[in-house]
């Protein structure tokens, strides 16, 4: 897009990938009522919000943040490029000029997306300690920590798994088998590149299971934490698998 003068295709980047720094900066520009330049109300109108909706946003601490969240929810396919087009239409070239280094940068990428259910978060927290805060220095995508509130769950999940995470660690447990979110994430990842499944997905079992191991993962090598003899090399082995090109 000409506004950014960047080779990055902003039209392919979902709005959910816009970082918090850029969102706050947008608010600093657009939240104040401006008699000379367009403010958040003009931008909201260009996004397709009605007069009544815009009037109700006036009581929000940050109307700009709220319209971004609601625009995402209403239009899951909206992109960063579309946002820039709206700001251009509002003739706020000063905003684009100041934010182009924030908006035009590549979205954050990760070594692995962690697929887990909330009851297993204590183990995910241990994974963070062992893989991020040690010499391994891996970068994990943990949904509850790394995804902004208000983003469309399904669009940001597919974006992260397909384009921004090299691999996916699946924390398999009895509760995992009952999780619709985990089921969606696993099946989506498996659908991406059938020829490279063994490279992309890494199932992890950290405690004994009463239910049957999921059949869709049966052809993958499992990293087992729940066996005493494997605990010694569990974290180095997992780290090595996640560090491969």
UniProtKB/TrEMBL annotation:
Localisation per UniProt entry: Cytoplasm
A GO biological-process term: positive regulation of canonical NF-kappaB signal transduction
CC terms in the record's Gene Ontology section: cytoplasm; plasma membrane
One annotated GO molecular function: TIR domain binding
UniProt keyword list: Cytoplasm, Immunity, Inflammatory response, Innate immunity
Pfam families to which the protein is assigned, alphabetical: Death (PF00531), TIR_2 (PF13676)
InterPro entries according to UniProt: DEATH-like_dom_sf (IPR011029), Death_dom (IPR000488), MyD88_Death (IPR034249), Myelin_different_resp_MyD88 (IPR017281), TIR_dom (IPR000157), Toll_tir_struct_dom_sf (IPR035897)
Death domain boundaries: 25-103
Protein name, entry field: Myeloid differentiation primary response protein MyD88
Organismal lineage: Eukaryota, Metazoa, Chordata, Craniata, Vertebrata
């Amino acid at each position: 897009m000409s506004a950014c003068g960047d080779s990055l295709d902003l039209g392919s980047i979902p709005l959910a990938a816009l970082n918090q720094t850029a969102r706050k900066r947008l608010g600093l520009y657009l939240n104040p009522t401006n008699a000379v330049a367009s403010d958040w109300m003009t931008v909201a109108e260009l996004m397709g919000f009605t007069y009544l909706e815009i009037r109700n946003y006036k009581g929000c601490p940050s109307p700009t943040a709220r319209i971004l969240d609601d625009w995402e929810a209403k239009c899951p396919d909206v992109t960063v490029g579309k946002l820039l087009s709206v700001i251009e239409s509002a003739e706020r070239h000063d905003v684009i000029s100041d934010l182009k280094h924030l908006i035009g940068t590549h979205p954050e990428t990760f070594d692995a997306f962690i697929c887990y259910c909330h009851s297993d978060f204590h183990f995910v927290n241990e994974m963070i300690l062992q893989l991020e805060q040690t010499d391994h220095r891996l970068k994990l995508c943990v949904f509850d920590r790394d995804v902004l509130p208000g983003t469309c769950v399904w669009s940001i999940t597919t974006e992260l798994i397909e384009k921004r995470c090299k691999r996916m660690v699946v924390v398999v447990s009895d509760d995992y088998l009952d999780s619709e979110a985990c089921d969606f994430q696993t099946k989506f990842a498996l659908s991406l590149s059938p020829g490279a499944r063994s490279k992309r997905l890494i199932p992890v079992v950290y405690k004994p299971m009463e239910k049957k191991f999921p059949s869709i993962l049966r052809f993958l090598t499992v990293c087992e934490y729940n066996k005493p003899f494997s605990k010694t090399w569990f974290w180095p082995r997992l780290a090595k698998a996640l560090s491969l090109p």
